[in-house]
Amino acid sequence: xIVKIYPQNPDARRIEQVVEILRNDGVIIxxxxxxxxxxxxxxxxxxxxxxxxxxxxxxxxxxxxCADLSQISAYARMDNDEFQILRxxxxxxxxxxxxxxxxxxxxxxxxxxxxxxxIPGHSVSQQIIKQxxxxxxxxxxxxxxxxxxxxxxxxxxxxxxxxxxxxxGGYGQQIPTALVDLSGDEVVVLREGKVxxxx
Length: 199
Prior knowledge:
This protein is of the alpha/beta class. It has one domain (2-191): DHBP synthase (Alpha-Beta Complex), CATH 3.90.870.10. It has eight helices and eleven strands. The protein has helices spanning 12-23, 45-55, 69-75, 80-89, 106-109, 123-132, 147-150, 152-159; strands at 2-4, 28-30, 37-41, 63-65, 76-77, 94-100, 114-118, 136-140, 165-168, 178-181, 188-191. Strand 10 (178-181) and strand 11 (188-191) form a beta hairpin. Helix 1 packs across helix 6. The longest helix is centred in the first third of the chain and has 12 residues, at 12-23.
């Protein structure tokens, strides 16, 4: 099923339709400010397991997409310096690795003590997460053929049977988020993105 939601003025009824799917253990593909991504509710262990099955070998590379900084602080531990780095860069095409808090479900961590966190700078994804009321577990849609990760109609054609809905928010980006590790004593940029990180 494809659900068209325009980023300029997201339709509240369609956002609610997507949120209901997520509340019922659903998995979606949705637009972000980087690439299209799989998404499910952080509170649904059944849906998290589905994303892991879809992702296969890369199942350990799951990220948590949050609505705002206060939501992040509930699921990850950070000091004031780390908080300020997040505040300067979010929302935006970044993933920051932080030490997970005890509130992070074990199903999402898979024995890791750190978690990737992001706040997408895309109106559709922001509205979905806000309406859901909890973060989403998320993972990039990856394929060697670019058009199958950027064109929502082709994404639906290839991956639609694996998920409950594909959100068409327009043509997607090709560049993944910058990846920055804040979990140790030093800030480490693991992957450059389309926007430079402000440290």
